[in-house]
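ok so i was messing around last nite and threw this chain in just to see what happens. nothing serious, just curious
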Amino acid sequence: MPSNSNNQPESNPSRLEKILAYMAVGVIGLSVISILVTLISQMFESNGGLVIFRQIPVLGLPLGFILVLVLLFVSMSRRAKEARKGK
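result:
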């Protein structure tokens, strides 16, 4: 068990932080997979029926970025509250 250098209790992420993290990973992962599907379909010159896979990253990557930013702000505010309580 690693020791804390500040002798403060370890902080656990809230349920909201966990949900935001899983959502960001899922959305970004789906976008990357759809990019790979699009590239592979272009390699085999298949153009039919895969238009949706071209549009998922257009929406998914900015949404994933926004989710990561929200997660960052939520985490920073939680840590600031814990730091104020610790003083």
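not much to say yet. The CA atoms of residues 20 and 53 lie 23 Å apart.
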